[in-house]
Amino acid sequence: MTPHAVAVTANGFARCDKPERYIQQVVSHWSHKMATSYADGVGTFPFSELESAVMTARPGGIAITLVTADAERNVHLRGVIERHIDRFAFREAPLTYEWTESEDSGQ
Length: 107
Hints:
107 residues; alpha+beta; TATA-Binding Protein; six-stranded antiparallel sheet; 2 helices; 28% helix; globular
């Protein structure tokens, strides 16, 4: 990010019964495209140098933190994440997603 860039951070929550399982499945699915990792209920997804997501298993669902360089891309990646979680949570899908966002200075 340039010194004047603004990172957009969105925090989401997907209510579901098996958050750890679904995170592990998304980590495995995306591992052929990026260097994903999973440990202790936390999946990390480095989409690029400027974009990343972290999914954390919580009681009652999946907490998601998504960081992108702009708001439009953030909204796009939220949809990608939702579709992929829903794919693996097909018995419960479509899940309910709640998102909030904030803009942080890129410094």
